[in-house]
Structure formats: C-alpha cells, structure tokens
Amino acid sequence: MVAAHNLKHALFCAVITLVISWPIMGLKLEAVGTQITLQGADPFTWIAIGVAALAVFLFQLFREAILGRLGMLKSLNPMADRKPMPQEKRLKLESIGLTLLIVLALIWPFFVSRGSVDLATLVLIYIMLALGLNVVVGLAGLLDLGYVAFYAVGAYTFALLSQYWGISFWMALPIGALLAALFGLVLGFPVLRLRGDYLAIVTLGFGEIIRILLNNWTNVTGGPNGIGGIPDPTLFGMEFGRRVKEEGNVSFHETFGIAYSGEHKVIFLYLIALVLAVFTGLVIRRLMRMPVGRAWEALREDEIAARSLGLSRTGVKLSAFTIGAFFAGFAGTVFASKQGFISPESFVFLESAIILAIVVLGGMGSQMGVILAAIAVTILPELAREFSEYRMLIFGAAMVLMMVWRPQGLLPMRRRQIKLSTGE
Amino acid sequence: MLLLEDVHTHYGKIEALHGVTVEVKQGEIVSLIGANGAGKTTLLMTVCGNPQASSGRIVLEGRDITRLPTSDIMRSGIAIVPEGRRVFSGLTVEENLHMGGFFNTKSEIRKGIEHVYELFPRLKEREHQRAGTMSGGEQQMLAIGRALMSKPRMMILDEPSLGLAPLVIKQIFEIIGQLREEGITVFLVEQNAHQALRLADRGYVLETGRIRLQDTGENLLANPDVQNAYLGG
C-alpha cells in the first residue's frame, strides 16, 4: 500500500521534472535572419534531462530511507551532544575572543591585498545588515522579507544628498540612518496588526515598492542608470584621491608626506566599516539587556501574555522595526560610499533573502552566530569562484547540510540569564 | 471596584455580549460561570480593552477605562492571568516573574519575587528552570505569580483550572483564596462551576451573552437551575 503510493508519487514527480525541464532546456529559439526558429537541443541535454528525471524518481521512491540516513548524519557530527559551558566561562571566553578578533581585524588590512580588504568591507556591511535584521527577526520575531528596502534608503539618501547638495559622507551617515529609521517607523504602523506569513508578504511588497520606485523615478534617482560619482569619505577634511576634488580640502598622502597609493582609500573605508560594525554590535548588545530587549523577546515568545503585562504591542514592535531599519541605513551609506555607484540592481529581493539566511544560519538572536554566518555567507561564494557556475549549487548544498545538522544555527542564542543579586 | 454597565461587544457584525452588567466590589471574590461560547472570555477581554466595548461603560476604581488602550488598562492596578497560562516558555521562572514587574523599579521587583516565592515555594525550587519545561500546575502558579508582580489591586483569572488534574485544581483554588487574604479583589471566570462558586462571595451566570442569574455563591450552588445546567444535576 505504502510502496504503491510511493511509486505513484515518484512517477508523478519524475513526469513533472520532464514537463518542466523539457521546454526550458530542451527547446531553443534561434534567430536565423529575421526568422526565429525552434530547435531541439543536442543529445547530451536530452540525456541530462532523462538522468535528472530518473534521479528525481529514485529519490522520491526511496525518500524515507534517504532522509532517514541524512538524519543519522547527526551522529557523525562530533559536536552534537556536548554539554553547554557554564554561563560565566562562556561570557569570559566570548569577550576575550571578540577583543582578539577586533584587534586582529584592525591590523589585518595592512598586510593583505587590496581585493581582500575590499571583500572584507563587504563582509562588514553584511554584518551590520545581519545584526540589524537580527533585532527584527531574531529578537522580536517579526519576519521581514523587505529589509533591503531600508538598506536602499540609506544608500540612496547618501547618493542623492551628495549629488544635489554636495553633502559629505559623515553628514550623510546619520541622515541616511535616521531616514531609514523613519521609513521603518512608517512601514511599522500599518503592519503592526499582522503576524507571521502576512507580515512577511507586506514587508516583501514594501521592499519591491522601494526598488520599483527607485527604478522608475528617473528624473530624481536616475532610474536603472543609477547614481555615480558618490564621493569617498574624508578623514578630518583629508581626501584620499590623487588630486583634491573639493576646494579647501587637502589630500591624505600630501599631509603625511607619503607616496600616493590607491590602497589607502580602501583600507580607510574598511576601517570605517569596522568601526561602524562594532558600534552596531555594541549598541544592539546593550539594547538586548535593557528592558526594551526583554520586551522584544517577551513579545516574540507570547504576544497575548506580553500584552497582559501592560506592554504596548505597538511600541515594542515599532522600536524593533525602527532600530533594525536604522542600522540598515548605516550599512547602506557605507555601501554607497564603497561602490561609488549605486543602482536599483543592488537592492533586489535576493539581498533580503541572503540577509535573512545569514540570520537563520547564524542562529536567530545570537550576535556571534550572525557575525560568523555573515562572514561565511559572503566569503564562501568568493572562495568557490573557480567552480564558477556550480558555486551557487555548492552554497545551496552547504545550507541544506547546515539545516540538517544544526537547525538551531551556527551559534544558537544562549540568553544571558537575569540573576538578581542575592542580598543587598 | 470594577463595574461593567450595559456592556455590548461586537466581533465584526456579530454581537457577543448583549448588555452585560457586572459589579465586583473591593475585597470580594466574584465568579463568572457559563457554558462554552457564553461569552465569558469575551467579557474579560472587553475589560482589558481587546476588543473594546461597542457601547456601555467599564469603570475601574471610579475611572472610566472603556476607551483606554489595553496597555494603559493593564498598567492601572489590574492584572490578568490569561486562559491557558501563557507563560514565556523560553524564559526561566525568575525571568518570567521579572517580566511581570516590567514597569516596577528593581527593588520592587526583588521584593515582589521574594513574595511570590513565599506564596509558591515550588517556584523557588524551579527558579532557573525554563518555564516551558514545567508541569501544567507549576506553570499556572507561575502565571499567577507573574500577574502578582505588578502589585495589582485586582486580579482577573481566566479558567485557571483548565487542563489540570483535580488535585492540582484544589491547590490552585486554595491559592486564589489566599489572594483575598492579600487584599486582592478577584474576578474569576470558570467552567469548573462547583469549585468556583464554593469559593466565591458572589457569582454570575452568563448565558449566550446575557447575565442570566446573579446571587451569592452559596445560593447559586443550591439553585436547581444552576445545578441542572452546570453542576450535572
């Protein structure tokens, strides 16, 4: 009975595979002069499609057995059943580790190639984004699929301000973050009543609205052409270019009497990103231990109970949304400055999905986990670059294995327990 | 202390309460009994402002709270133990209690927690255990303890005996009796009519959104209609 059902199901899946892949891969439109003709693919593609259908058939047929095996992979993982460390020891280790990491991150760029520093800056931007989204998704439990919108607001704020009013990076940084926060607040109001899937869809829509707006408001944002010539940040009025662009500024290499090098700018940007990422981490860490942080968690755990204690649902959700958006704005400003050019292309849904994947992979709510995951998710595809088109495949496989082995994330959140001081 | 006057409540177009008048006086235990779907929980939720009453008046200690938002109502000396306990399962017992005193100062919270541990020595034993891993009875104690943390003058309990073993129910009702000695006015909503009426000074019987009967607890227990309908004859 079960076997018959499995066979039927497997056959169905295989046929679906054929039906889907045959027109997509097996048929090609070729332009011959003004005519477009339909051509079949080469025999190799046909064989590949057949093999794929067979693979789907076999997998579906023996699905239970295969998934059972996958579950057993758990026992291969040597770290599976360790006892958790005591809280004091863990906190100490964590702070030592973090300090070392930051010191290392400070001196590291002076010894490596320009490309690596550039990549590291991108990693830091993702860390900021993921830490911000972690507040919304991991702590407050609001599934946000349009987080990239706030990132776009930050980036475009800087780009537009510099284009129209010549405002510098340092001025634009707080403005971009605050404006993103304002957008978070504005979005927050209508979606407060929604939960789970509904909220996800509304935020998804919001993300798309922002992107499409940027794409179509051509006379302000330049539409799909984007905005170029975004200035680099300056260090106390010192520019990092070969020649000074703005009156009254001096250039960095002349002030210090060193030879001009393009690397100075890259390293400087990296350091800015590092400082901002550390700032983001520390601020959120602090917030998590304040009453507002506990209110986020309470609301995630049980909304009705939280409200019965007199917590205002509106206030708590809005604060999470706004703070998350604020740091996305930060990251956006840095991103615009790093790229020097932005277009709506950079703010597609995939970005939101990647940031969300970072938060889930890292372990919802856990800052260290999220940082590790941000590093992994940004660097892995780069490392796998030589596999070219297979790299996304490898990336996907890594995610699947990860979720089988450690569904709770790389470093799941261990809440710092409140202990009341005994006695006075 | 708490007065509902001709309260009507709607869910969309459907009227769930058709003009309910209930009074709970200072220091009393008042029980509200009724069958499934009679509107007991709706009545409580209306007191909490979610949903708000579509007409009528709700007065708490002389102050009209009918149109206040839930969060304001819950901060004005009233606490609710919601149906189905709803403790924060991922948080420890101590943290749950801490959340209960969210708007209090640190020293008030410390005293409050000590007081709750005196009332419920069982919770003290489980201090650092996650609330979700405890038994139903313990969770109910925690839910009551958490509600006590805000130092309420009045406590509303929604079906505290739900899904508990008879022996545990007895304990919970003893605790509710203790609340009165603490000077807390109790408004109790129960399906377990027998226990609820025995404990109560006064009782109300709610039927399809209307108050059908009101009397002292004893009289209601002895009332043949109540016996037939809610006490199984």
TrEMBL record, chain A:
Keywords: Cell membrane, Membrane, Transmembrane, Transmembrane helix. InterPro entries: ABC_transp_permease (IPR001851), LivHM_N (IPR021807), LivM-like (IPR043428). The keyword GTP-binding does not apply. One of its GO terms (cellular component) is plasma membrane. The keyword ATP-binding does not apply. Residues 6-108 form the High-affinity branched-chain amino acid transport system permease LivHM N-terminal domain. It is a multi-pass membrane protein. The chain crosses the membrane at residues 7-24, 44-62, 91-111, 123-143, 148-165, 171-192, 266-284, 318-336, 348-380, 392-411. GO terms for molecular function: branched-chain amino acid transmembrane transporter activity. It holds the Pfam family DUF3382. It is found in: Cell inner membrane. PANTHER family: HIGH-AFFINITY BRANCHED-CHAIN AMINO ACID TRANSPORT SYSTEM PERMEASE, HIGH-AFFINITY BRANCHED-CHAIN AMINO ACID TRANSPORT SYSTEM PERMEASE PROTEIN LIVM. This is L-leucine ABC transporter membrane protein /L-isoleucine ABC transporter membrane protein /L-valine ABC transporter membrane protein. The lineage of its organism: Bacteria, Pseudomonadati, Pseudomonadota, Gammaproteobacteria, Pseudomonadales.
Automatic annotation (TrEMBL), chain B:
Belongs to the ABC transporter superfamily. Keywords: Amino-acid transport, ATP-binding, Nucleotide-binding, Transport. InterPro entries: AAA+_ATPase (IPR003593), ABC_branched_ATPase_LivF/BraG (IPR030660), ABC_transporter-like_ATP-bd (IPR003439), ABC_transporter-like_CS (IPR017871), BCAA_Transport_ATP-bd_LivF (IPR052156), P-loop_NTPase (IPR027417). GO terms for biological process: amino acid transmembrane transport; L-amino acid transport; neutral amino acid transport; organic cation transport. PROSITE patterns: ABC_TRANSPORTER_1, ABC_TRANSPORTER_2. SMART domains: AAA (SM00382). Gene3D superfamilies: P-loop containing nucleotide triphosphate hydrolases. GO terms for molecular function: ATP binding; ATP hydrolysis activity; branched-chain amino acid transmembrane transporter activity. SUPFAM superfamilies: P-loop containing nucleoside triphosphate hydrolases. This is High-affinity branched-chain amino acid transport ATP-binding protein. It comes from Marinobacter daqiaonensis. Residues 2-233 form the ABC transporter domain.
